Amino acid sequence: MYGTTRQPVIDVGGKVTGYSLVRDRKTHYGRALVTIPKGHKVGSEGGSPFLPGEASPLVLHEVDQAEDVAAFLDIAKRYLPPVTGPDNGYVLVFIHGFNNRFEDVAVRAARLGADLGVPPNDMFMFSWASMHSVGHYPVDEATVDVSETSLKDLLAKVVTAARGRAVHVIAHSMGNRAMLREVTLEHIESVVSTLPDALPSHAYFAETLPLLTDIKNLILRDTPARPPTDWTHLGTYWRVGKPVEYLNPLNLACKPDTKYAIPTGNSR
């Protein structure tokens, strides 16, 4: 299930088939269905021509936009099964980084859910209106800043939809900028901040990080901060992540033997 600040793409019949790169004035909610092929490998989205034997790619094949918030909560109530134990007593929210389309985010969220063993309907995502271009990095910086309130609203709705389930959040790259400012502390069980594209000097980061210790589990996962000469670094200053700071062990509610892969690459 999703929340997105992108403008919908509508076919001739009036059905929403996806979302564009253009930022909308409102947040849209709904359910996205992604096909995960047999033979899926952990950490792979399939379909690479350079890897012989790779499984078919994960594909977004249907978008079901809710008419309004009430309809979205009704969808969540309908598809989230009753809690029977630790295996389904939680939901996971994925917040992506820059340079992503809606379909990229849907596929990545589905892949993360499959790799972590998350029940399909327990996986949520927030897709802010990032562009699909490395050259639009400054545009994405501005866009994620104005997406904070929409993320906060989505998290509040996820908490309502979860109906007592634990809520976990994975934020990647630039998505951490919105998450660090708007995460609803009292309702979040754990946060995984991966490759946070946030400046240590940002006031919101300095103010928010100590508060995040109130969350039961928090982990900042990053490679050493990259200097400005690194081609993968598009800003002027080093990013958060040096040194790596583990405040508490991550304890996502998934099977103990589950092997999972968290996105690695600051470009996505």
Automatic annotation (TrEMBL):
<dbReference type="InterPro" id="IPR010297">
    <property type="entry name" value="DUF900_hydrolase"/>
</dbReference>
<dbReference type="Pfam" id="PF05990">
    <property type="entry name" value="DUF900"/>
</dbReference>
<protein>
    <recommendedName>
        <fullName>Alpha/beta hydrolase</fullName>
    </recommendedName>
</protein>
<dbReference type="InterPro" id="IPR029058">
    <property type="entry name" value="AB_hydrolase_fold"/>
</dbReference>
